[in-house]
Design brief:
The complex is a heterodimer of chains A (about 170) and B (about 140).
Chain A (H helix, E strand, L loop, with lengths): L15 E5 L5 E5 H4 L3 H8 L9 E2 L5 H19 L8 H14 L4 H14 L2 H15 L4 H7 L7 H13 L1 H4 L1
Parallel strand pairs in A: 1-3
Antiparallel strand pairs in A: 1-2
Chain B lengths: L9 H4 L2 H8 L4 H6 L5 H5 L6 E4 L9 H13 L6 E5 L7 H10 L3 E5 L26
Helix pairs in contact in B: 5-6
Subunit structure (chain A): Part of a SCF (SKP1-cullin-F-box) protein ligase complex.
Organism (chain A): Eleusine coracana subsp. coracana
Protein name (chain A): SKP1-like protein
Chain lengths: ~170, ~140
C-alpha cells in the first residue's frame, strides 16, 4: 500500500559492518557475511560494527581476514537459506569447487586460517580446514606424513621413537 | 624415555579441540599414524569418545589386529563412556569376542554392524569383568 519508507535500510542496500584486523586494516563487509562468525554474530545483532566504529579483531591479521571474508561472502547466501536446502545442484557444485580451491594454499596460510576459523567460530570454515589437514594425512606412512607437513628428517632419537611406535601399534601399519 | 619435542610445525601448535576435529575426519589407522609425530598427537586419538574401527581397513580380516586396535584405543583412554563401533561385515568366532571383552575392560558399548558370528545367532560373551551393557537392536 504505502510506498516503502526510505532511509529505514530494510529494502535498500544490505547492512554493512566494519571489521578491523590486528594490523589496523579496515574491512567493510555485509553483516550477513560477517555473521557466519558465531563470535561476531551477537555483536552485529546488537548493532555493533556499523557507522565509523568497526569491530576490532586483534587475533586476525589483514591477509588472513581478507581470506576469511572471501569465504564468508561466498557462503553467506547459502547460509541465509538455512544451509540452502533448496539450493540447486549447480550452486552446491560451485560451492564445492570454491571450497576445494580455497584450501589449495600454503601451509602457513592454512595454519592462520585454522586459527582464525577457530577464533571467529565459523563452523563451515572450521570443518573445511580440518578436512584439508586430514586429507594431507590420510593413508600416509609416518615418514610421508612428516614430509607432507614439513617436518625435518628425523633425528636418530626420533627414528627410534618411530620404530617403537611401529611395534606398539603394529595393527595400524599392516 | 622422554619424547623430544619436535620442530615447530603447525600440528604442534594447534589447540586440542582443533586437533580433535582433524582426527574426527581420519580413520583409526591414519589417526594412529599421526601419533608418531609427537607425544601429544599420540594421546589425542584416544581422547575421542567415539571411534569407528572398520574391519575393511585391515588387510588381515581377522580378530587379532582388530582386537589390538581396540586395545590401543582403550588402553590410554581417560574418559568413560566409550562407544565402539565395528565396521560392517566383520566375521568372528566366539573366542574372538571373548578375547575382545577380556582385553577391553573399559568398553561400555559395542555396536556391531551386520556382523556374522557363524551359526546360531546368539552372542555369548564371558563378560564378567567388562562394563559392556546389553543393548537392544
Amino acid at each position: 500500500m504505502a510506498a516503502p519508507e526510505s532511509g529505514d535500510g530494510n529494502n535498500g542496500a544490505a547492512r554493512m559492518v566494519t571489521l578491523i584486523s590486528s594490523d589496523n586494516t579496515r574491512f567493510e563487509v555485509e553483516a550477513a557475511a560477517a555473521s557466519l562468525s558465531q563470535t561476531l554474530q551477537l555483536t552485529i545483532l546488537d548493532g555493533g560494527g556499523g557507522g565509523g566504529d568497526g569491530i576490532p579483531l586483534p587475533n586476525v591479521d589483514s591477509a588472513t581476514l581478507s581470506k576469511v571474508l572471501e569465504y564468508c561472502i561466498k557462503h553467506a547466501p547459502a547460509a541465509a537459506n538455512g544451509g540452502a536446502p533448496n539450493a540447486t545442484a549447480v550452486d552446491r557444485a560451485e560451492l564445492e569447487r570454491f571450497d576445494n580451491e580455497f584450501v589449495n594454499i600454503d601451509q602457513s596460510v592454512l595454519y592462520s586460517l585454522i586459527m582464525a576459523a577457530h577464533n571467529l567460530e565459523i563452523e563451515g570454515l572450521q570443518s573445511l580446514v580440518a578436512k584439508k589437514v586430514a586429507d594431507m594425512i590420510k593413508g600416509k606412512s609416518p615418514m610421508e606424513i612428516r614430509r607432507t607437513l614439513g617436518f625435518p628428517d628425523p633425528t636418530p632419537e626420533e627414528q627410534a621413537e618411530m620404530n617403537a611406535h611401529m611395534l606398539e601399534y603394529g595393527w595400524a601399519y599392516e | 624415555m622422554a619424547t623430544k619435542p619436535l620442530e615447530k610445525d603447525f600440528l604442534s601448535e594447534l589447540p586440542n579441540d582443533i586437533a580433535l576435529s582433524i582426527l574426527d575426519k581420519l580413520d583409526a589407522h591414519s589417526s594412529t599414524m599421526v601419533g608418531v609425530l609427537s607425544r601429544r598427537w599420540k594421546q589425542l586419538p584416544w581422547l575421542r569418545s567415539r571411534l569407528v574401527i572398520d574391519i575393511e581397513k585391515f588387510k588381515r580380516k581377522d580378530m587379532s589386529a582388530f582386537t589390538a586396535a581396540t586395545k590401543s584405543f582403550l588402553a590410554s583412554s581417560v574418559m568413560g563412556d566409550r562407544v565402539f563401533e565395528t565396521g560392517p561385515n566383520l566375521g568372528f568366532a566366539e573366542p574372538d569376542l571373548h578375547n575382545l571383552f577380556k582385553s577391553c575392560k573399559q568398553l561400555e558399548t559395542l555396536k556391531m554392524v551386520t556382523c556374522d558370528q557363524g551359526q546360531g545367532g546368539i552372542i555369548q560373551g564371558h563378560v564378567r569383568n567388562s562394563k559392556v551393557r546389553p543393548l537392544l537392536g
